[in-house]
TrEMBL record:
SUPFAM superfamilies (alphabetical): CheY-like
Protein name: DNA-binding response regulator
Keywords associated with the record: DNA-binding, Phosphoprotein
TM region positions: none
Positions of post-translational 4-aspartylphosphate modification: D55
Signal peptide range in chain numbering: none
Segments forming domain Response regulatory: 2-115
Length: 257
């Protein structure tokens, strides 16, 4: 895999090369650049590499300036000593954001993510669509702002939620501790912004978390009832045409809603 490194610290370049040699010796570093200006010129004069390792703070400015002057279509792994640029990094073709110094474990995980991207849609040569898939995964909500007493908003951690349900037109979240919060989103909107590996749309009324499922009960007409760790206002019934999909999701074999 032909790889470009954009980094202005010699020690960091040595770090990336050394780790790559250990975990992915088949990767070929075709060039090393240390500034924004050289990077812009390089992309204008050379074919697109297959991968770029890019520091954010370069000798003559921010690496994000490069994207303002050239169209980079290959995947990028950002390498930096700062973590405050992660969100901005994923607005470009970034597939990972590694903090210096980079270890072998972090590098293996980043390259495994790249490999997964390349196999998601093998018939599609343009990685941009695959990047959008990854960015959606990276942007699944981890917290939701919920109204509490007075005029305050509480950041509710998604991993503490047992289920979301709708009653009388109001959507509520039930936490593992049994607390309830009003959510200013529809269940459809929640299903779109929450990680599908974690949440399953059991029916029109309920979106349930895998970690909260205590067991399932067989129901008539080949349906099942989902029993959660906390009490729910009504039985959570999965229709017979979705039972197979639900069981696959529950055992980790599917990521579909």
């Amino acid at each position: 895999m032909k790889t470009l490194i954009i980094e202005d610290e010699k020690a960091a370049v040595r770090n990336v090369k050394a780790v790559l040699e250990q975990v992915a010796p088949d990767i070929e570093v075709i060039d090393v650049l240390d500034c924004v200006e050289d990077a812009i010129d390089w992309f204008r004069a050379h074919p697109m590499p297959e991968l770029v390792f890019m520091d954010i703070h370069l000798a003559d400015g921010s690496a994000f300036e490069i994207f303002e002057h050239t169209d980079i279509t290959c995947p990028i792994i950002f390498t930096t000593a700062y973590d405050e640029y992660a969100l901005r990094a994923f607005k470009v073709n970034s597939i990972d954001y590694l903090l210096k110094p980079i270890g072998e474990e972090e590098m293996r995980a980043a390259l495994a993510k790249l490999k997964q991207l390349r196999t998601v849609r093998p018939a599609e040569p343009d990685l941009r669509t695959l990047m959008r898939t990854l960015k959606r995964e990276e942007n699944y909500k981890t917290h939701l702002l919920v109204p509490v007493k007075g005029d305050k908003l509480l950041p509710l951690a998604v991993n503490t939620v047992c289920c979301f349900y709708i009653a009388d037109g109001i959507v509520k979240a039930v936490t593992m501790q049994g607390g309830e919060y009003v959510i200013n989103r529809t269940l459809d909107e929640l299903a779109d912004c929450l990680e599908p590996k974690r949440f399953f749309r059991a029916n029109r009324q309920y979106l349930v978390a895998r970690e909260a499922v205590k067991d399932i009960s067989l129901w008539f007409n080949k349906r099942v009832i989902v029993n959660l760790q906390v009490a729910t206002p009504e039985k959570i019934v999965v229709s017979k045409n979705r039972v197979g999909e639900f069981k696959e999701w529950l055992t980790g074999s599917s990521t579909s809603y």
